[in-house]
């Protein structure tokens, strides 16, 4: 009996020691995980505070252009993109125009402000504080999980709510400041870029000479039409440009240069410039490009689908515009269009590859809250399409499958920019980008 009692007592002591060690080990891991979160949270708080300081400085710089009126400064800030980088570039643009053009530059002609009054009982300083605090916010805490710390006997027996302990320690050492809401609507100013130095320089350097060669006159008129904002003047420039294009086509077959080669309306430089100008103009009209200072910034991130759609439409419009010209007569023109189409295809391929990588990373990341949803694999695509057995006469299975996929994406309001892997009847896999109303390869 005494032997049995001794065995039980020894076993109990062994279990008790193991339990104590496991408890200490678990607490050490909880503290380590909490400290990791504290470090990351403090870094994020410092980043947000720095962004607030930068935003304040940027608004105050803009306000210096309008007698210290922060309300008007915020209108300009929103008009140029709502970020400090573009706001600072815009300030430099205004300053440079004032210094160079002197009395010729009038900010009141370049910027049209909307009527706006401060809320009752709020002064300019308080309003600026409210705008900054409501524009730049601290990240919400992502709750810790019980599985963040691997457990043993202690966690198996007592269920110590590891996640709550981690969050409690983190919140105690690095509390997240409370975000403030800014519910006052501030309209954007309207900015006329033609009043600034770059536009004035462009207009001086690109005066149209109707006595120029067909090449010089057509290219200048075509580009000037793209640049012109007045609809009546734009239409007149397009009409003049078409006149030179028609003359070129009419007399092209009769004109040979000294080497016996046919003359071309385009050079590599002129057609490349023309395509870029049309692309930039289309992106600007779509709100995807901004000219601030001496730089042009394309707002690609977050607008990828609209960017690809606009670029593709530019090429389609060019092909339609020059459809009456034989490709063999204008190899420079059509080679340039072909090169631009290939460049756009490569840009879309890079985007698709990036989304695929993000999808694969989300599968491997144990801390990820969800799987990356903007990349749809071929098996899921097949589920969305379903089994199509009735193919109408004159159509094909592949066409009907893509119709079904388009209907799924449209009806379910799939996010623009989502990439779908698709394996057609030919067993070749393709990847399509959803543009909101159609797919593009």
Describe this structure in words.
It is a single chain. The N and C termini lie far apart (82 Å). This protein has a 4-stranded mixed beta sheet. It has a two-stranded antiparallel ribbon with strand order 1-2. Strands 3-4 form a two-stranded antiparallel sheet. Helix 11 crosses helix 13. The longest helix has 62 residues. The protein is of the alpha+beta class and 441 residues long.
The N- to C-terminal Cα distance equals 82 Å
Total domain count:
3
Instruction: Indicate the mean pLDDT.
Output: 79
DSSP helical segment count: 15
> What gyration radius follows from the Cα positions, in whole Å?
32 Å
- Tally of DSSP β-strands: 8
**Strands in their spatial order, largest beta sheet:** 5-6-7-8
Helices and strands, in order, run as HHHHEHHHEHHHHEEHHEHHEEE
A few lines on this structure:
With 441 residues, the protein is α+β, with helices and mostly antiparallel strands.
Describe the secondary-structure layout.
Elements: H1 2-63, H2 70-79, H3 84-101, H4 107-110, E1 111-112, H5 124-135, H6 153-158, H7 162-173, E2 190-191, H8 197-205, H9 214-227, H10 231-251, H11 268-285, E3 289-292, E4 295-298, H12 304-321, H13 331-364, E5 375-376, H14 378-385, H15 397-411, E6 419-423, E7 429-434, E8 439-440
Helix pairs in contact: 1-2, 1-3, 1-5, 1-7, 9-10, 9-11, 11-12, 11-13, 12-13
């Amino acid at each position: 009996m005494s032997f049995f009692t001794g065995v039980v007592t020894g076993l109990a002591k062994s279990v008790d020691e193991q339990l104590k060690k496991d408890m200490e080990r678990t607490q050490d891991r909880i503290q380590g995980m909490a400290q990791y979160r504290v470090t990351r949270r403090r870094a994020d708080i410092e980043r947000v505070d720095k962004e607030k300081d930068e935003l304040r400085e940027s608004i105050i710089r803009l306000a210096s252009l309008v007698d210290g009126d922060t309300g008007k400064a915020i209108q300009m800030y929103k008009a140029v993109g709502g970020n400090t980088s573009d706001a600072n570039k815009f300030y430099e643009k205004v300053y440079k125009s004032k210094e160079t053009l002197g009395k010729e530059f009038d900010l009141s002609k370049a910027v049209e402000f909307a009527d706006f009054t401060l809320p009752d009982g709020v002064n300019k300083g308080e309003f600026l504080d409210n705008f900054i605090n409501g524009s730049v916010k601290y990240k919400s805490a992502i709750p810790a999980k019980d599985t963040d710390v691997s457990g043993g006997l202690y966690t198996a027996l007592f269920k110590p709510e590891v996640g709550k302990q981690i969050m409690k320690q983190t919140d105690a050492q690095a509390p997240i400041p409370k975000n403030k809401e800014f519910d006052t609507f501030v309209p954007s100013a309207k900015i006329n870029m033609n009043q600034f130095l770059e536009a004035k320089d462009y207009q001086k350097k690109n005066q149209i000479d109707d006595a120029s060669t067909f090449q010089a006159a057509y290219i200048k008129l075509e580009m000037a039409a793209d640049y012109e904002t007045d609809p009546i003047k734009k239409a007149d420039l397009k009409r003049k440009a078409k006149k030179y294009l028609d003359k070129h086509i009419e007399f092209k077959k009769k004109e040979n240069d000294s080497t016996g080669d046919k003359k071309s309306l385009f050079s590599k430089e002129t057609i490349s410039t023309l395509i870029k100008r049309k692309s930039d103009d289309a992106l600007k009209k779509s709100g995807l490009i901004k000219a601030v200072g001496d730089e042009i910034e394309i707002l690609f991130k977050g607008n990828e689908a609209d960017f690809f759609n606009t670029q593709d439409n530019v090429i389609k419009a060019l092909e339609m515009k020059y459809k009456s010209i034989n490709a063999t007569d204008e190899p420079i023109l059509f080679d340039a269009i072909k090169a631009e189409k290939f460049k756009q295809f490569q840009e879309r391929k890079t985007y698709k590859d990036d989304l695929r990588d993000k999808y694969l990373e989300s599968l491997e990341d144990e801390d990820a809250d969800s799987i990356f949803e903007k990349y749809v694999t071929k098996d899921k695509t097949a589920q969305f399409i379903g089994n199509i057995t009735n193919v109408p006469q004159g159509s094909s299975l592949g066409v009907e499958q893509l119709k079904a996929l388009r209907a799924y994406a449209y009806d379910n309001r799939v996010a623009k920019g989502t990439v779908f892997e698709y394996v057609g009847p030919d067993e070749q896999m393709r990847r399509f980008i959803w543009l909101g109303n159609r797919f593009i390869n």
